[in-house]
Amino acid sequence: LDATNVVDPELSIITTISLDHVELLGDTLSAIASEKAGIIKPGKPVLIGRLPREAETVIRRVAREQGCELHALTDRFPDANSIPSTNLSGDFQRWNAALAVNATEILQEHFPIQSTEALMQIDWPGRWQEIRLQGRCLILDSSHNPEGVVELEKSLSKLTKKERRKPIIVAGTLGENRARNLMQAIERHAREIFLVAPKQRRATPTKFLKDCLHCHAIETTISTLFPKPNCTLIGEPGDTIVITGSIYLIGEVLERIKGATSRDGGRLQDKI
Questions:
Q1: Could you report the per-residue pLDDT of 46-78, keeping only the tens digit for each?
Q2: Do the bridges between strand 129-133 and strand 136-142 make them parallel or antiparallel, or are there none, so unpaired?
Q3: I need a surface site. Which of 30, 40, 110, 142 has the fewest CB within 10 A?
Q4: What are the phi and psi torsion angles at 267 (to 5°)?
Q5: DSSP letters of the chain?
Q6: Do 68 and 46 form a contact (C-beta atoms < 8 A)?
Q7: CB 30 within 8 Å of CB 58
């Protein structure tokens, strides 16, 4: 069912696999891996990122059945000391960069790349993106699946240690499973929480988000983010505000801040 199956690939790349989109892909890692393995084409090389063992076993089996040469990222970059650097925040982004480098090496004959300097010049909206606004530091980070939430927690821990104060967190998601994971994470790192619903038909109701919170000592508000174009932000000058969850929510924030149209914001993620 993968949309990339409209393409006849030079290389099939499977980056990571986690329990996401379970209603479509299956509720186990092996089932999801079997679905993802559908992009593997006979005789075409396959590159895999750092996969859970259960998922990797499935991918290797399908690649073998299809007569494909399989490349594993960890064979090329065995540990974190060997992976390339990037200007994006988070160690996982360095692993993503390593995967891109490994892919270009495999395809060197078709797409000769002479330099990886561009890895230090990436502009990727909504990935721990910092914006100064009305004296506050806004951090926009799309962390909508379990893997993303794990990385978000790491970033929030570093942020709190650096500033010696927990941030205000604004969150909104699509899907109840995603909501549970995200709410459990942010309540450990927020001094105040604002819950919002992205303008998307699959948005998780804010009441459900609030019901997922267990720590009632944190002030929690169900809110509309940026209800007016020039409204005053939450918090006070000097505060750090982390906006996280659905990439649709991040798109709405960027639209309001930068004056882009809704169509522009929608480019952060497809509408499938």
A1: 999 999 899 999 999 999 999 999 999 999 999
A2: antiparallel
A3: 110
A4: -70, -10
A5: --GGGGS--S-EEE----S-SHHHH-SSHHHHHHHHGGG--TT--EEE-S--HHHHHHHHHHHHHTT--EEEHHHHS-STTTSPP-SSSSHHHHHHHHHHHHHHHHTTTTS-----GGGGS---TTSSEEEEETTEEEEEEE--SHHHHHHHHHHHHHHHHHHTSPPEEEEE-BSHHHHHHHHHHHTTT-SEEEE---SSTTBPPHHHHHHT---TTSEEEE--SS-STTPPPSS-TT-EEEEEE-HHHHHHHHHHHHT--HHHHHTTS---
A6: yes
A7: yes
CA distance 28 to 55: 9
Residue in this structure with the two tokens 């009441």, named with its chain if needed: 207
pLDDT in tens, 147-162: 788 889 999 999 999 9
CA atoms of 47 and 37, how far apart (whole Å): 11
Using the structure block, give the residue that is written with the tokens 């002479």. 114
The pair of three-digit structure tokens given for residue 180, joined into one six-digit string: 């549970």
